[in-house]
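Supplementary notes for students who missed Thursday's class. We covered one full example, reproduced here. Read the sequence, then the structure, then the short commentary at the end.
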Amino acid sequence: MRLLIFSTLLFNTGTINAQTDSTKPVTYSGYAEFYYSYDFSNPGNHEKPAFLYNHKRHNEVNLNLAYAKASYNKNNIRGNIALMVGNYAQYNMSAEPAWAQFVYEANLGVKFSKKHNIWLDAGIMPSHIGFESATGADCWTLSRSIAAENSPYYEAGVKLSCISKNEKWTTAFLVLNGWQRIRKPDYIQKPSFGMQVNYKPNNKLTLNYSNFIGTDKPDSINAIRLFHNLYAIFEPTSKIGLTAGFDAGTDKYNAKNYGLWYSPVLIIRYAVNNNSRIAARLEYYNDPDQVIVSTGTKSGFKTFGASLNYDFTVTKLVLWRSEIKNYQSADEIFNNKKNNFSFTTAITIKL
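Structure (token representation):
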């Protein structure tokens, strides 16, 4: 998840930059994140664990994500187009057609009313699930949580959203092509749906509930994926912040039986001074039936995670980050070991 609330940005996709100068309907932005990561399991193929999709490469300098974005907002019309490259695109978009693997965003929205903030958006959009996004500089930690890595970062479909007059409530209903899908997979004809309710009573607290109801399996299996995402972000002062999240889902893990997975996440962040921040994360992911994460082991995927993060603001646009992280699994899934330790450092540039 994040500093500026991702769920709120989702429903105002493309309006933030445009609102800084109403005389400019078209605005441009960009982002790049370069990193080096060392995994002490020392994978020979340089690929970190299979359940991770960001900062994926071991013992090499690499590009996690870079994109260039253009946004339009005028006369009740808004839209975004962003093209990307990097590890995030390579690993998250591998199942998409070639043309889509470079698309970070491509959407168009229409405002229905002059009096009410009701929008209909269609296209490729950021996911309505979770408090983390692919743009690392917007997240409290350098790497993403296991829960974020194994739930949608993006979605394609139609979204109807509404922001209340007091701007405390944001709600949305979505019809989607599937679970993190741009192209609907073969042999799936059923639609998928999503909902989000975000409540921000003041500038210190945000509460969110999001869900997904649909399928990621062929219609012949007759499976329904039901997924819930809850989180709270509490920042009582300018120095300290707390994010607590919980994911839970059910789906078939074979032709007959349903399995349950869940993941709690807790992040605490502290501002040492104007330029330095530290953040600590504790998390657990339990998927014994391997619905989401396949390990081929007796216990399935049962993994604790702990990380410590340090951020230094070099300039207004440049952020330097470093993180140490440890995973502890019930089975030997890390190069024949139960334990996995890694160090990652990154430079982000956000325009």
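Commentary. The first strand starts at residue 26 and ends at 39. The two ends are 20 Å apart (CA to CA). If anything here is unclear, bring it to office hours.
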